[in-house]
């Protein structure tokens, strides 16, 4: 049962493949604590009273959280990919049968 | 010599064809597509040419085929595209083709006419059926009404008919006014739309019935009905008659339906049969037409036995053309072989650069500026490398490069199915035509993105950063500012550079832009100077090829000296600065430290203005010993080049002319009559040879000579300054691209990443889609186009102005392939 047209489903497929690859890799990089991505972890303020150990712990927690979030988004894109591919297939079949 | 570097050598040929063999020979040449025919009767009207009749017959056949195609399309029958390319049929086959098309067209027209008549009939009957059905109600009311007023007046008469629904209000008003309210109109809508037989549109109509009294009113009502294009139908008064009539109408409608169905079937069969062959026929007819068009360009021999043609031919392909002509002769069964004769001509031949699918996109870019003069150096082989490279300098991002590459790779891999689709979308065709160009641009962008260490504005730490944090205490962290400035003089830098490209840590540094600007600006100037010097060098090949020895001495040499003594020297200073100076905090190397490193730009400006650069105390004023002396020498040399370029060539030409005149006078006085004859004989070819640059100026006056040279000199001298500055666009666009992608990341994707918590994953899912759309539309498409345009400008203006004339005209061979692709438009036909 095609819901979206052929163009939209192709767009969905391309976007989801891109999303899966990029977000999956970003998740891996976050998991290993890549410095290049440090600017994007949730704000951790270093106040006067904080101990260095706590600070590091917070930063590490932010990294792991972001890694999981990236993977969640990647999984959602996997779902989108499956949906779009099914739509694409359905569109192809309906256009062939006509 | 490779044909890619210069256009192919051409020659003008005269071709004698026997009248009987001419058609077959031209057909073979059309398949070959390597010959450009010249119009030998330009003064002759199109209608006075020899084969005007044949062309007219082809036009007629084309019209019939178009009609057939339209009919086929109307019935949604797929047209079979077998992709085969039938040969041009023999002239005698033309009659068969004509007969076939004539038969088909007549058959179709007849079927259509019949169908239309049937449909009209059908429409009338349905309308009548509706009238009979709808008016029943009115009549019932009428009789009821009549029963009450039976004594009042004699019976009312009526007319019934059908009218377009939108005309009803006007119709009603008109009736009221014209008959002063003495008529009674009733109307009812027909629910189902009816098909108009002539246009095929679906129209809504209404049934009406008008009651009135007397003949006068009757004529008036009928006139009004006529005026409103209402169709009136006879409607019997008695209910039994009406019922009978309705029955009759019903049966007739049923009959008509079967007949209509049969007519449609017949039409469908005819069209399906035609659809199988129509592509083939179109190709055949177009080929015949093209051949006769070409034959119209030929001259008739006095004896009427043979046709004479003149054509431009690539010298290398003469053999192929001879073979094609022989094939043509054999096919026509003629015994006399055609004669191909090379001719001398004073005209400049057309420029023919043979291309393949890879080089054609680059050649198109060059030709868009101007088609190269005959045998001039063709810039496109160099453009294949420099164009994507300069593009990539501005479009340096690994991620965007990957997107570009994947898109182009998809087009290249799916080349055949995509080309077979023959899309009409202009933008798509531009992208598809340049698929190899985009592919190479994508590869180069990936490379420069890797060097800039930019991946969607983030850096990749492939080899491990060569920066480190040392002696960082808790106290240090507390006073640390938001962004850290990297200072290579401290021991944060390990002292060895990152193996390839920029160190990934620069992406996070506070002084990233300052560092990158200095690097990218210098790189753009260095690339620009190399590019321009290369352009000047190519002009040397042109001068040597066209044997313009004076130009080498009076134009090429001073140009190279001027450019390299000023601007190449500046580049060399950049390298000296890079090699000699380094950031340090030691007192011993203070002279080589950051404070003492001279600004190259200021040093260069001071060199031109003949000033001493101010130096800080404790620094050396010179980068290397003898710098000031050398700079003075270089500057003086460069300045001397200006009058050299300006005056040397015109003076040389003037002197040459004077000597010639002198020589002429001497010979004239020595041998009077003979010398004149001799001179006249020789002067003709020399004038003819003067098609190229320098020789063409021989005829112009001295003033013109100086003015042209002054313009060229001023253009070159000012150009080298402004063009060098123009290459700074490489830096500017690259900076803009990097900043834009960073802003997009920080303003969009970063918002999704910084959410925290488990909802962040879903937010990231949505925001990523948004970010990727913006990346494609703004960063890849828009920025890509802008970088493309700037690259194009750098090639057209900065590079090609150094050597390229571009005053030629393109070789347009007579080829069936181009004629068929261009929808049958023959170049000679407007």
Textual characterization of the structure:
- The complex is a heterodimer of chains A (98) and B (830).
- Chain A is mainly alpha-helical.
- Chain A has one domain (6-97).
- Chain A is built from two helices and no strands.
- In chain A, helix 1 runs antiparallel to helix 2 (52-97).
- Chain A is rod-shaped.
- The two termini of chain A are 14 Å apart.
- The mean pLDDT of chain A is 85.
- In chain B, strands 1, 2, 9, 10 and 11 form a five-stranded antiparallel β-sheet that branches.
- Chain B has helices spanning 19-32, 52-74, 93-148, 168-178, 215-227, 239-296, 318-332, 360-369, 380-394, 398-413, 415-421, 426-433, 435-452, 474-479, 512-545, 549-580, 600-609, 627-670, 672-689, 693-696, 702-726, 729-753, 759-799, 816-821; strands at 10-18, 36-37, 157-164, 184-189, 194-195, 202-203, 205-212, 231-233, 299-300, 306-314, 339-343.
- In chain B, helix 10 runs antiparallel to helix 13, helix 18 crosses helix 19 (672-689) and helix 22 (729-753) runs antiparallel to helix 23 (759-799).
- The two termini of chain B are 38 Å apart.
- The longest helix of chain B has 58 residues, at 239-296.
- Chain B is α+β, with helices and mostly antiparallel strands.
- Chain B is built from 24 helices and eleven strands.
- Mean pLDDT of chain B is 85; it is low at 674-698.
- Chain B is flat and about 130 Å long.
- Among the domains of chain B are: 47-296, Alpha-Beta Plaits, CATH 3.30.70.3450; 382-412 and 443-483 and 728-810, no CATH class.
- At the A-B interface, helix 1 and helix 2 of A face helix 14, helix 22 and helix 23 of B.
- Chain B: Pfam families: V_ATPase_I.
- Chain B: This is V-type proton ATPase subunit a.
- Chain B: Essential component of the vacuolar proton pump (V-ATPase), a multimeric enzyme that catalyzes the translocation of protons across the membranes. Required for assembly and activity of the V-ATPase.
- Chain B: It is a multi-pass membrane protein.
- Chain B: GO terms for molecular function: ATPase binding; proton-transporting ATPase activity, rotational mechanism.
């Amino acid at each position: 049962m095609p819901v979206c047209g052929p163009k939209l489903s192709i767009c969905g497929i391309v976007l989801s493949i891109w999303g899966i690859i990029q977000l999956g890799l970003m998740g891996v990089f976050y998991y290993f604590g890549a410095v290049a991505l440090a600017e994007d972890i949730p704000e951790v303020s270093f106040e006067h009273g904080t101990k260095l150990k706590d600070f590091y712990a917070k930063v590490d927690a932010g990294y792991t959280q972001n890694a999981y979030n990236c993977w969640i988004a990647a999984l959602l894109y996997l779902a989108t990919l499956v949906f779009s591919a099914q739509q694409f297939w359905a569109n192809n079949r309906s256009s062939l049968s006509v | 010599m490779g044909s890619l570097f210069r256009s192919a050598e051409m020659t003008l040929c005269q071709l004698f064809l026997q009248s009987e063999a001419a058609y077959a020979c031209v057909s073979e040449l059309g398949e070959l597509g390597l010959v450009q025919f010249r119009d030998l009767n330009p003064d002759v009207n199109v209608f006075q040419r020899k084969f005007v009749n044949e062309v007219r017959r082809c036009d007629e056949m084309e019209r019939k085929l178009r009609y057939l195609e339209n009919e086929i399309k109307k019935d949604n029958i797929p047209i079979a595209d077998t992709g085969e390319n039938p040969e041009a049929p023999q002239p005698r086959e033309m009659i068969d083709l004509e007969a076939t098309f004539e038969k088909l067209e007549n058959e179709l027209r007849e079927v259509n006419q019949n169908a239309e008549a049937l449909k009209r009939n059908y429409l009338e009957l349905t309308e009548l059926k509706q009238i009979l059905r709808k008016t029943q109600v009115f009549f019932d009311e009428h009789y009821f009404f009549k029963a009450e007023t039976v004594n009042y007046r004699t019976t009312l008469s009526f007319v019934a008919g059908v009218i377009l629904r939108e005309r009803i209000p006007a119709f009603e008003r008109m009736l009221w006014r014209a008959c002063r309210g003495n008529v009674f109109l009733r109307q009812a809508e027909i629910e189902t739309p009816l098909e108009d037989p002539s246009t095929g549109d679906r129209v809504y109509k209404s049934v009406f019935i008008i009651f009135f009294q007397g003949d006068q009113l009757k004529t008036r009502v009928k006139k009004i009905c006529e005026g409103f294009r209402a169709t009136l139908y006879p409607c019997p008064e008695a209910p039994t008659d009406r019922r009978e009539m309705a029955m009759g109408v019903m049966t007739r409608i049923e009959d008509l339906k079967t007949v209509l169905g049969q007519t449609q079937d017949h039409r469908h069969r005819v069209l399906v049969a035609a659809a199988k062959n129509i592509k083939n026929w179109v190709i055949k007819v177009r080929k015949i037409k093209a051949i006769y068009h070409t034959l119209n360009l030929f001259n008739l021999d006095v004896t009427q036995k043979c046709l004479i043609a003149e054509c431009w031919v690539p010298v290398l392909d003469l053999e192929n053309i001879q073979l094609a002509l022989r094939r043509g002769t054999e096919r026509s069964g003629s015994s006399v072989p055609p004669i191909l004769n090379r001719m001398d001509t004073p005209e400049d031949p057309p420029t023919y650069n043979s291309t393949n699918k890879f080089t054609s996109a680059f050649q198109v870019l060059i030709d868009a500026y101007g088609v190269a003069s005959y045998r001039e150096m063709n810039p496109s082989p160099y453009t294949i490398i420099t164009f994507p490279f300069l593009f990539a300098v501005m479009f340096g991002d690994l991620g965007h490069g990957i997107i570009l590459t994947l898109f182009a790779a998809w087009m290249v891999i799916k080349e055949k199915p995509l080309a077979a689709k023959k899309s009409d979308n202009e933008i798509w065709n531009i992208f598809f035509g340049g698929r190899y160009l985009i592919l190479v641009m994508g590869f180069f962008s990936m490379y420069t993105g890797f060097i800039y260490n930019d991946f969607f504005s983030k850096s990749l730490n492939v080899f491990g950063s060569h920066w480190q944090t040392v002696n960082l205490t808790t106290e240090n962290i507390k006073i640390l500012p938001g962004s850290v400035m990297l200072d290579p003089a401290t021991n944060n830098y390990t002292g060895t550079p990152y193996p390839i490209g920029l160190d990934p840590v620069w992406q996070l540094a506070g002084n990233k832009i300052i560092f990158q600007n200095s690097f990218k600006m210098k790189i753009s100037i260095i690339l620009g100077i190399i590019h321009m010097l290369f352009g000047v060098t190519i002009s040397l090949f042109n001068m040597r090829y066209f044997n313009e020895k004076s130009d080498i001495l009076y134009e090429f040499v001073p140009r190279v000296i001027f450019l390299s003594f000023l601007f190449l020297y500046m580049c060399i200073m950049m390298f000296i600065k890079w090699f000699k100076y380094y950031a340090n905090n030691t007192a011993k190397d203070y002279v080589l430290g950051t404070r003492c490193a001279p600004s190259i730009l200021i040093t260069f400006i001071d060199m031109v203005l003949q000033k001493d650069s101010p130096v800080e105390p404790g620094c050396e004023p010179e980068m290397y010993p003898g710098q000031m002396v050398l700079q003075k020498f270089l500057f003086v040399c460069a300045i001397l080049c200006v009058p050299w370029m300006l005056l040397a060539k015109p003076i040389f030409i003037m002197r040459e002319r004077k000597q010639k005149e002198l020589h002429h006078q001497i010979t004239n006085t020595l041998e009077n009559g003979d010398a004149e004859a001799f001179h006249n004989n020789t002067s003709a070819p020399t004038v003819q040879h003067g098609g190229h640059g320098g020789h063409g100026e021989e005829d112009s006056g001295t003033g013109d000579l100086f003015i042209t040279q002054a313009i060229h000199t001023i253009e070159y001298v000012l150009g080298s300054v402004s063009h060098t500055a123009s290459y700074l666009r490489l830096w500017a666009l690259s900076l803009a691209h990097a900043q834009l992608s960073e802003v997009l990341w920080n303003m969009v994707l970063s918002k999704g990443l910084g959410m925290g918590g488990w909802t962040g994953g879903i937010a990231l899912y949505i925001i990523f889609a948004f970010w990727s759309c913006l990346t494609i539309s703004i960063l890849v498409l828009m920025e890509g186009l802008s970088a493309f345009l700037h690259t194009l400008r750098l090639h057209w203006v900065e590079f090609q102005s150094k050597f390229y004339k571009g005053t030629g005209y393109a070789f347009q061979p007579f080829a069936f392939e181009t004629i068929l692709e261009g929808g049958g438009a023959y170049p000679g036909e407007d």
